[in-house]
Amino acid sequence: MPLLFYDARIRAYLYQMIAIGAVLFVAWVMFSTASANLAKQDIATGFGFLARQAGFVITESAIAYEPTDTIGRAILVGITNTVKVSLLAALFGTILGLLVGIGRLSHNPVLSRLMLAYVEALRNVPLLLYLLLWYSLIISAFPPVKQAIEMLPGVFLSNSGLVMPALRWESGFTELIAALVVGLAGAALAARVLGRRRVLTGKDMPIAPCGTLAFVLPLAAVFLVANIAVSWDVPELGRFRLSGGYHLRPEFVALLLGLTLSVSANVAEIVRAGIQAVSKGQWEAATALGLSRGRTLKLVILPQALRIIIPPLTNTYLTVFKNSSLAIAIGYPDLVMVSNTVMNQTGQAIEAIAIFMGVYLGLSILISLVMNWYNARVALRER
Amino acid sequence: MTQIDTLIADTTLTSRQAPPAPNGRWLGAYFGTPGNALITILCLGTIFTLAKLAIGWLFVDATFSGTPAECKATSGACWPFLSAKMRYIFFGFYPFEEQWRPLAAMLLFLGACLVSMVPKVWGRGLLIAWVAIILPTLYVLMAGGYFGLSVVPTTQWGGLPLSFMLSFIGLACALPLGIALALARASNLPAIRVLGVGFIEIVRGVPLISILFMATVMLPLFMPDGITIDKLIRAQVAIILFAAAYIAEIVRGGLQAVPKGQVEAGHSLGLHYWQIMRKIVLPQALKKVIPPLVSLFIGFFQDTTLVTIVGLLDFLDTVRTAMRDPQWQGIAVLEGYVFAAVVYFVFSALMGAYSRFLEQYFRTTHD
After folding, report:
1. What CATH number should be reported for the domain whose range is A71-133+250-378?
2. What integer is the mean pLDDT of A80-87?
3. Residue of A86, A118, A128 best to disrupt the B interface, most CBs of B under 10 A
């Protein structure tokens, strides 16, 4: 027996057995106590509650939802809300962060210091604090609905958000979308073909005009041929509330603002580090070729910096996606908040938490996959 | 003249010339080109507008002393709110006459941290001092029960001491766990590796809120009858587990940076796995990751604010509830948040500066 124990392979097996056994044992203990506790407290188990009627109102949803719909659909609304706010925050935050990061490296001391102050102010204060601050700023700065400010005809600003006329499509919507898709595909194709020709022949090609033409032509055709009819859904100021129109709620605005600013500060730092990592000789070579600072940045520096930027950028996107769960603090109905409501209503905490953790995990993995694919595309192709 | 002579003549000629004029002369960096001038003016305009708003709100239109009613009459900040609520904001529901205890604990903690930040005092002695003297003293001060101090249950703890406790103990306990996870992830044994990767990736893939929910809502369901765990401890465990997964990833980076030859050298000396890790690999790996760990700590210090969502009275939560006091409600809407933001900013910025100092320190010292 001692001889066996001195065999490294057998010992390795033994350790692994012990590890797996310990994990299984803990899982079994937890499972059995949990099922005993649940049975004692009369809490149902399983996912049957998803088909039940939800019965609660969700103030904001990207898909059609009524309180009479199922709990499953309510959770779906939560998922779409989470995805909506994270996507928008990632998009706006990236654009803003790119500008701030480039501004940080400006030769103008005023601009670079101002951008430094912006980044430091955002990175050194908790995001949750900012969310609460923006939210109470919006709530306290604007008047109640009864005295809503009518900024433009039909556009009302109050402490319950911005209400504006919504465009309603009567007909021709599908045709327009089809034209947009065709136009985008055409423009991409034109840019690709002409870009390749430019590389092959060395002659300048009219990429921008051809691309624009390819994009505009299908749209123009649809406008001329198809029957496009729209109507405006203009909000009306009632005694207590505004009805109709498109409603931009303060919870959504505060959350989007907070997340966007936090993304922008992170992206700014990543972009700055990425640009600074490109060797100075590249700047000098581009300047020697007569390129301006802006064109140097666009044509020489950024494509190289992108390789360094993408992996930390992936982390930033994952973070903003997870941080959108702070929505619950200000009452934006994201996945966590809807799950929390479901949890309070059904008492099935384990299932509700399992659902939203599963969704977060799945979407996190999806984001990682997409960003890794993009990273492989921009990575240096070594021969 | 030969060609060479011409070249020499040319160089002497150019060397005698005056250096080219710099791009723009007076304040060239600010107003060198029209575009630059425009940027400068826009930036100065922004700074001016923000400063005017801030000074107006903070000082000019502010009320410095008086009642809530007097605050309501002015449009600026309401400082009497802060002075009236200061002790609640800092210490929460801790018994009023006993609040010198959390204050003393906080000062002791901050002083000990300040001393521990000096790399020269690092070592076994410091660790023993923390575990054997400082932490027990802090606990006795906060919880009481010894030396005639009255007992204060954790449900009455709150404010800034709680925030410090959650983040500091969180990181201190997460560090060994994170190192263990990093070693598991780098292990040769497939089952251990899978368990390590699984834990790390699952925790990193979900928001902290969900883990806090698990600890506060779900965990009681997994406890045998009659056993209840303090809510504060449950949140603390959640933070530890969350932090451990992130620390593991940072430590993994450090482990990967240690050359393979070090491990092989250890093997050839006849050391076994734990000896190699403890005496050769980890000392080198951990030294590399100290600056990123400090940065991570800044993030966790800020992330502890999330415990307000599961109903713990941390610093942000005392600020929030202070503003909901009926006496001040609707009057002090932003003051509390601005104050909390300043407190968080000061601590985070100091730790950021410390992280940069450490980076510099490790770049220049070899031992």
Report:
1. 1.10.3720.10
2. 92
3. A128
